[in-house]
Amino acid sequence: MHLSYPARGSGRLRPTLVRALVGADLTIAPGETVGVVGESGCGKSTLAKVLVGIERPSSGTILHRGRDLWAMPAAERRTTLGTEVGLVFQDPSTALNRRLPVHRLLRDPLDVHRRGTPAERAARVRELLDLVGLPGHVADALPGQLSGGQRQRVAIARALALRPALLVADEPTSALDVSVRAQILNLLLDLREELGLAMLFVSHDIQTVRRMSDRVVTMYLGRIVEEAPADRVTGHARHPYTRALFSATPGLLAPIEPIPLVGPLPSATRPPSGCPFRTRCWKADQRCAESMPDFQGEAGETPGGHRFRCHHPVAAEETTQQLVAQATPAEERP
Ligand SMILES: Nc1ncnc2c1ncn2[C@@H]1O[C@H](COP(=O)(O)OP(=O)(O)OP(=O)(O)O)[C@@H](O)[C@H]1O
């Protein structure tokens, strides 16, 4: 699946294109949580937006239970997205209408999709508050009268109102106080367990992604470069970029130094030829400039297995310390 945006500020007639997703294909199994990691601008949010139908891919298909979302008539697409996918944004203050009390915010999806009688809708609102651990009296409050954590609980309850099979959570805790982040993450873990939800979980916080996910997907300049079971991704990732990303996460592999990467992240409007990571990779050679490798790896360990796209993958048993030594230029070595 591909998605290009016209670059902000570029001409209307022949805009420069930002290649936000390039052949980014992903399957999420029922009940599975897939976490997405990568530097800012690598396409994580765009992937989330495509899954929930906010953005339409420039080419490729989005299949919900095997049916092509964008081949459906518009009304059916709206119903499918409204009832099968829940969305939790970063900032509940902007995601919730400030003028509506909580019970209206929670009832709204039920009204729009005509679920149940008025009495059943009112009962569902009470059930939803209970589900996300909010007391009944919150129903009459306006979002502005709640704390950030309570507002995010309301946003999660609203996303779950129609019992979706998939919850897409894009940075769901990054706008919250550090003290309430853990509570919201625990709530999401409990809900996943209780409701059998599948989840796409996007976050800058690599530790959190690893904790929340069954499988971790690494993105680089719009491409998925690796998919690995969460328990393998820290020390046994095979793509040099994934290893470098995890080595730079404070506290995860401490006291190991991060693997040094050369230069800045290239622009998504003019990505390098071949493997886009090659300009920063200590293993890159001519082959990497010529072609982007296909996926290789072991299928079957988890849905999607452990796959990576690299001409010179890291050996599974290579330690991060060994990689730091390889990637440090000779003149900078101690
Ligand atoms: N509406 C838009 N118009 C033009 N370019 C966009 C638009 N939205 C995103 N982009 C660009 O697409 C690329 C991918 O952006 P995206 O927001 O998906 O990345 P991200 O990994 O989620 O970043 P972050 O972690 O900072 O949110 C970036 O180069 C970004 O500047």
UniProtKB/TrEMBL annotation:
Say if the entry is tagged with keyword Manganese. Answer: no
Pfam family, any one: ABC_tran
- Which PROSITE patterns does the annotation name? ABC_TRANSPORTER_1, ABC_TRANSPORTER_2
Q: Example GO molecular function term? A: ATP binding
Q: Which residues form the ABC transporter domain?
A: 1-246
Could you list this entry's UniProt keywords, alphabetically sorted. ATP-binding, Nucleotide-binding, Transport
Q: Tell me the superkingdom of the source.
A: Bacteria
PANTHER family found in the cross-reference section: D,D-DIPEPTIDE TRANSPORT ATP-BINDING PROTEIN DDPF-RELATED, TRANSPORT ATP-BINDING PROTEIN
Which NCBIfam families does its entry note? oligo_HPY (TIGR01727)
The entry assigns this protein to a family as follows: Belongs to the ABC transporter superfamily.
Please identify the protein, giving its name as recorded.
Answer: ABC transporter ATP-binding protein
Q: Which source organism?
A: Streptomyces chisholmiae
Which taxonomic lineage is given here? Bacteria, Bacillati, Actinomycetota, Actinomycetes, Kitasatosporales
